[in-house]
C-alpha cells in the first residue's frame, strides 16, 4: 500500500504529547496513520484510539497499523469524542492530537483509483463533492450550483478570507453548472488573472468550500473544550492548524481555558516547522502547533 501523506511536525508532536508507555492517547484526525504509527511505537501497555470521519482513509490506517493490538478505530468526527470514550469505558485520556490539515491522500489518491472528492485543482473527472464524511448532506456542488450569489460570496469571504469573493461568486453563477474541481479552479483563475504564484489562485475558494461543507470551524469550536475536559491531570491537547481561521480559534480557546483555570498554554510561542522539514515536505509550510496542558490540581 502506498502512503501519500507525510506527518507534519512529527518529532514535536511526540515531544509535546509527553507519551507514557502505558498511557491512553487519541489521534483525533488519524488519516493514513502517520502520527498514529509513531505514537504506537512509543507505547507498550498503552492504548491508542484513532478517529477519522473519512471511512476510506481510516481503512488505510487500519491496514497500516494492523500489526498493533493496542489500537481502536472509529469512523466518526472528533467532536463526538465523548461518545467514543464512553464506548471504550474511559473517563479520561493522557493526550489528544488533532492535525487539522487535509491529507495528501485526498489530493493524489488517483494513483490508486481513489475517489478524490473534487479537492484537487486539476481534477477534471471526480464530482465536486469535498465532503470528508459522506453522511453530511450538502456537497460543494450544491453550494456552487444552487446557493444564491450573495450567500456564495459570504462563504468565500467568511470561511476563506477571499477578498475577491464577490467577483468570484458572480463568475461562478454565470458559469453554472460547475461540475468539476478543475472547472471551478479555472473560473477563479479567470477572475483573479493569476497563474504563476507559489500559492494557487483558487486556494482560498477551495478552502472556504471545504470548511463550509464539512462544518470544520463549528466542530473545532466544540472539540477543544470537550477534549480538555476529557484529559486526565497534566494531560495534553496538541493541535496543528494550517490557516488563520483555525489557528485563531485554537489560540483564543486555549487562552479562555487558561483564564478559566482549566490548565495552561504550554506553547507561549506557536511551534512551526523547521526550514529542513519544509524543504522535505512543502505541505508543512503553513503548519502551526499549539499545546494545552490540563491543570494537575
What would you say this structure looks like, in words?
It is a single chain. The protein is of the alpha/beta class and 297 residues long. It folds into two domains: 10-104 and 216-294, 3-Layer(aba) Sandwich (Rossmann fold); 137-214, Putative methyltransferase TM0872, insert domain (DNA polymerase, domain 1). The chain is 42% helix and 14% strand. It contains 13 helices and seven strands. It has helices at residues 10-17, 34-40, 55-64, 81-87, 105-108, 140-146, 149-160, 165-175, 181-192, 203-214, 216-229, 244-259, 275-280; strands spanning 24-27, 47-52, 71-75, 93-99, 231-241, 263-265, 288-294. It has a seven-stranded mixed sheet with strand order 3-2-1-4-5-7-6, with helices on both faces. Helix 7 (149-160) crosses helix 8 (165-175) and helix 8 packs across helix 9. The longest helix has 16 residues, at 244-259. The termini are far apart. The model is unreliable at 110-114 (pLDDT under 50).
Amino acid at each position: 500500500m502506498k502512503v501519500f501523506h507525510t506527518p507534519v511536525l512529527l518529532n514535536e508532536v511526540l515531544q509535546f504529547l509527553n507519551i507514557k508507555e502505558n498511557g491512553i492517547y487519541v489521534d483525533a484526525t488519524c488519516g493514513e496513520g502517520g502520527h498514529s504509527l509513531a505514537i504506537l511505537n512509543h507505547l507498550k501497555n498503552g492504548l491508542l484510539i484513532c478517529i477519522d470521519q473519512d471511512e476510506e482513509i481510516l481503512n488505510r490506517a487500519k491496514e497500516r497499523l494492523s500489526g498493533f493490538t493496542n489500537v481502536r478505530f472509529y469512523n466518526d468526527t472528533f467532536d463526538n469524542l465523548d461518545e467514543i470514550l464512553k464506548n471504550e469505558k474511559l473517563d479520561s485520556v493522557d493526550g489528544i492530537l488533532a492535525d487539522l490539515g487535509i491529507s495528501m491522500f485526498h489530493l493524489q489518491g488517483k494513483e490508486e483509483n481513489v475517489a478524490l472528492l473534487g479537492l484537487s485543482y486539476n481534477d477534471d473527472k471526480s464530482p465536486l463533492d469535498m465532503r470528508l464524511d459522506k453522511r453530511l448532506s450538502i456537497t460543494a456542488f450544491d453550494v456552487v450550483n444552487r446557493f444564491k450569489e450573495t450567500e456564495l460570496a459570504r462563504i468565500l469571504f467568511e470561511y476563506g478570507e477571499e477578498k475577491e469573493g464577490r467577483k468570484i461568486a458572480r463568475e461562478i453563477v454565470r458559469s453554472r453548472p460547475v461540475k468539476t474541481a478543475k472547472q471551478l479552479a479555472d473560473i477563479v483563475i479567470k477572475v483573479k488573472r493569476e497563474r504563476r504564484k507559489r500559492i494557487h489562485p483558487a486556494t482560498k475558494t477551495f478552502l472556504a468550500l471545504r470548511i463550509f461543507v464539512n462544518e470544520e470551524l463549528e466542530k473545532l469550536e466544540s472539540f477543544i473544550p470537550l477534549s480538555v475536559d476529557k484529559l486526565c491531570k497534566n494531560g495534553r491537547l496538541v493541535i496543528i492548524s494550517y490557516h488563520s481561521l483555525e489557528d485563531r480559534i485554537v489560540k483564543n480557546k486555549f487562552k479562555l481555558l487558561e483564564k478559566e483555570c482549566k490548565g495552561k498554554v504550554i506553547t507561549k510561542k506557536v511551534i512551526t516547522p523547521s526550514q529542513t522539514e519544509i524543504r522535505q515536505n512543502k505541505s508543512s509550510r503553513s503548519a502551526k502547533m499549539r499545546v494545552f496542558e490540563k491543570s494537575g490540581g
